[in-house]
Structures are given as structure tokens and as C-alpha cells.
## 1
Amino acid sequence: MENLYGWHWQDFAELGSTNDCAVKLSELPPSPRFAVTAQSQAAGRGRRGRSWQSLEGNLFMSLGLEMEQRRWGELVFVVSLALLETVRSFKPGIDISLKWPNDVLVAGGKISGILLEKGAGMYIIIGIGVNIASAPAVSGSLLYHSASLAEAGIKTDRITFLKAFLQQFNCGLERWNRHGFAEVKDLWLQSAKGVGSEIRVNLPRESLNGIFKGIGDDGCLLLETAGEIKKIAAGDVFFQQG
Ligand code: BTN
């Protein structure tokens, strides 16, 4: 157990899912802000019931923090921006972009995933996986092409990355608290992939094609289809190229 930039941090040799562990911890929080990591994760979970392949050397972390529920929709943008800024701090000129709602892409491949889950009381659990050492091989179960920091020429390890991330995330939270979501949204859009271009969005029951017009003040994706703007709260985005 250690204090890392205001976060009470526990690292485990092996866990089923760091999110499960953090949800449990939130019942009796060790500190208002806490972080759980695991060297190996046997049952990592992704969004929409998918699994998260947890390869050796990669980072599996879950953060617990108290927050009003109305802010949770904006939080994911603060987290993905902090991930982007962390990667950039290791390699400033890297080809990196953000994909709605919460993916970070390096050279078009997904290097991290974020899974927000409800903890006890007002706790939100922020589960983050980062492909530090390797990326899962392309297979039918993967929606998107994956990438790793190692492939992108960044030599780091999960703990070094965790420390750098927590510092960026603290700054991101501070910026959001001070200046509100408008600034987060502007920064997010500056690095977003595909704004103004044709995309496909897969929803649970249908698939929509249209022009990606940006995000709304509530973080919804704005899609122009047949001359009207549709607001999409959740879905999987596919770019026409790349
Ligand atoms: C996604 O589908 O993109 C989200 C993936 C989130 C994976 C991380 S790994 C650490 C934490 N523990 C889990 O079980 N899932 C998240």
C-alpha cells in the first residue's frame, strides 16, 4: 500500500478483475481516492459485456472516486484525455487520437479501454486497461484493431505509466472542476478522430451511417444523417477508413 499523488494505491499479483476489487473496496474506502492495480488479471471485463484480454506486462487499473452521478457522463472524456496526454508525455510527436466515447488510438489501433462502473454509495469505479507491452492479436472477438505502446516505440512499464497517468489525471480533474466541461470538450475534440467525416455507429438494434459532427454538451455523439442531427448516447463507432 502506498500513496501516489494523493491516491491510496494497492498492487496485487493476481486478481479476477481490478474493477471487482475496487467496487468491493468502495464499500469501506481506504481513502477518498484509491487505485487498484494487478500484475495479472484473469477475468478482465470490457464494455457491453465483452471480455478484456489482459496480457502480461500491460496495465490493469481501477480507480475509485466519489462523484455526483450527473457528472459521470463527462468523466470518461477527462479520463481519455489524461490517457492521451500521458502517452504524449512519453513521445510528443506520436500519432495518437481519441475515438468516441472513450478509446485512445495510436496509429489507428486501440491502446486502451475504459470501463466505468458504479461502486458503493457515490463511488464511481474507473477501470482502465492500457496495452503497454503487447496488444491482443486480431481475432473475431475483437471489434477493433489493437496496438501497444511498445509497438509504437515507447519503452515503459505499467508502474511508470500508472504514476505518469495519475499526475495527468489529477491535472485533468482540476481543469474540469475549475473550467467546466466546455474546456474538456474542446480539448477532446482537438484530438478526436473523424470529426466531419463519414462514420458508422452500431447501436444495439440498428446501425447508422452519417457525418460525425462532434459531441454535445452532455458528451453525446452528434451524427448528421438525412439532414438531421441525431444525438447518440452509447454505441460503437467505425470509421470508413483506418
Ligand atoms: C473496453 O471495453 O474498452 C473497456 C476495457 C476496460 C478494461 C479494464 S482492465 C482494468 C479494469 N478491470 C476490468 O475488468 N476491466 C477494466
## 2
Amino acid sequence: MEVRGYWPIVLGCALGACLAIAAVILLQGSQNTGLGVLCLILIALLFPIVGGLAIGAFRAQRQALLDEVARETALEAQVAQQRAAVDTLADGLDIAIIICDSKAIVQYANRKAEELFRFEDAIGKSILAVTISYELEQLVLNALRENRSIRTEITIPFPEEKVAVAEAWPDITGRRAFLSLYDITALRKLERIRQDFVANVSHELRTPLASIRAMAETLSDSGEDEELRGKYLVRIVEEVDRLSLISEDLLILSAAESNPVRHQRVDLADLVRSTVSQLKPKAAEVGLELNYEGPKSAIIAANAIQLTQVAANLIENAIKYTPEGKVEVSLAQDGNMVRLTVSDTGIGIGSEHQERIFERFYRVDRGRSRATGGTGLGLSIVKHIVEAHGGTVEVESELGKGTTMRVSLPVGNPNSDQDSGQ
Ligand code: ADP
């Protein structure tokens, strides 16, 4: 309170005293009327002064109060603004963040945490109830008990199995714990795919190499047996060809994986038409009809060599897995997309295999794939190239009736030569 705020009280007291004196004098009689009158004059003078000062003081108090309220409101707005900024920041993070009290009750959870554990309102619930993970609850409680940061890799069982790097640490009061979770499921899956790939490659190479070795040993012991010699030499050449095919496909796959797509102006209709023409003799050799239907031209931005590999792989597969009937290839432009369809009347693919045929080295029937010179890499090359172009590939098939492969590709901007990331 300001000093001048006391003046009205002091003057009020003086006024009261004057009033009292005046009243006593006036009530006692008229001996001291001069003093009484003086008191009344003083009262008359003091009234406006006291009133003015009181009003001034009241206004000053009111202003101070208003200023205080305004300061507090501004402070609250600032705090709310900062909180909203922190919330926005935390919600934008790719890391799940949960804050718990000393009993592992959730006080805060960001959006990523809600997505990871698929909960909506976690505040006030125990972390065990929210995450269904005993491991996480123990991590939080141990971090609080031991007053240190603990980091570990955990498996989240619910709602779907995920692997995450979890870290819990206490705040300075030791009464709250922060928990961060970084989802590494995709990373682990990628690692597993790479490990499987290396194992598959060595397996795929080992089989022909073992045959070559066994046949070479037999040949060296076979003496002058010309018939056996001829038979084994043919098989050795076949196995070597197989190895060459695998290494070629591996190189195509690795090039598709490591190089960004170099977009050029490509006439897809021309490209598909000439691939069909080149493969017609192959189809005719096994008694199959191979037809193409499509526009005269379909200009898109793409990599011509890679799209030729896509069309050739799909048509060759259709020929390989169709004992009789026909293979139809068609192209259609639909707005900003072009669709390449390869349909056959072949053996078809069981629904349980349809999702897996795009995996590297996956074959429905290993023996048949081997007999037709397959490497098990054709469709994974197709998928990789198509996705690197921003497109999709789908399969529709019925066992014994046939298969349809549909590739959708964006037209892009055919007039600009440019690199695009994969
Ligand atoms: P492969 O070299 O064995 O043909 P791909 O990766 O091209 O390998 O195909 C994977 C598997 O998908 C093949 O082994 C085959 O079982 C199946 N497949 C692919 N295309 C067809 C098709 N048109 N009809 C039937 N099965 C197919």
C-alpha cells in the first residue's frame, strides 16, 4: 500500500477530533463559541480535503489492484501460451512421453504415447493400467527408488507387439518420473529382413555350388565314361547359369535400392509394346497367346530401364506359370496415373501366399520356380522399382484360374529431367 493511502485516515481522525471538540463546546454552552466556530470552519475545510484525498487514495488503490490483476492475467496468458507451445512440441515429437507421480500414476502423456498404447484419457490412471506393461511400471518405480536414469529395450505386448527403447528418470524433487519411449519396431524388422536376406543369399548360392562340386568330383572319378561326362557337363553349365541369374538379379535389386530414380520422359506404351514383342516368341514356344492392348502413347516421368525390368518380369512370370491359355497385357491412363495390367490363365496363387510373393526369394513352389529358371527375386525387384517411382503393385489371383498383376504409376512431370528420392 502507498504512503499517501494513510492520509485520509490521519485527516479523518483530525476531522473526528475537531467534530468532537466542536460538539463538546457547543453542547456545554456559549462561553467558547469562537473556538466552536473555528472548529466548524476547520471541519468545513477538512471535509473536502479528506474527501478528495480519500477519493484519490481509493482511485490509486483501485488502479494498483487493476494493474496487479492485469499483470497476473498477462502472466497467466504467458504461462498458458508456453504450456501450449510445450504441448505442441511434445505432441509433434516422434517419441512417446509420459510423466508419472511417485506412485506411477500418469500425470501427462503426449500424443505419440496415446497412439503407441491406444489410450485416450490416461491422466490419473496407473501406468500399468494404461500401458499393460509390468516392465514399464517397474522401470518408472526403479528410476524413482534409485533416483537415477534407467534405459532399456522393452517389448510392448499390447495393443500390438512393438519394440521400444525406454528411458525413465526422476525430476529434481524425486517425486515425479519422466518416461520416454522410442519405437524401434521398424528398425528391428529391417534388421531381421537384412539378416534373413544374407542367410537366403548364402543358401541360394550354396545349393548350386554344392551341386557343381559334387558333379565335378563325380566327373573326376568317372574315367572315360563319355555319356556321364556329357550329362554332368550340361548340368554344371545349367547351375552356373543359375548362379549368374541370381547374381544379375541381386545386382538389379541393389542398384534399385541404392540409386535414386533418374526420371526421364518415357513413352510407357511404346516400352510395354516392345517388351511384349520381344517376349512373344518365348510365349509361342510354350503354346501361349500373348496380347497387348493400350493407347498409342502414354508419356510419363520414369526410369525406362527399370520399367522395362518391371514389364518383362511380370510378363515372363505370366508365361512361366501358365501351362495353357493366354497372357493379356494392357495399359490405361486414368488422370494422373497409368495402370499396367498383366493377366494370365495360369496356375494361380493361393491367398495365403499372395502377400509374401513380393518378398525376396519367396516362391510358392520352389521346384517349379527352379525348373523354370526362377530366382525368387523377380517380384521383389518389381515392387521395389514401382514403389521407388511412387506407385503400387497389387495381385489378384485364384488357384487354377489365373493371376492378374496391377501396377499403378504416377504420370509425374515428363518434361523435367530430375532425380527423385526413393
Ligand atoms: P520366381 O523367380 O520364382 O518366379 P518371383 O519373385 O518372380 O520369383 O515370383 C515369386 C513367386 O510368385 C514365384 O515363385 C511363383 O510361385 C509366384 N508367382 C509369380 N507370378 C506368378 C504368376 N503369374 N502365376 C502364378 N504364380 C506366380
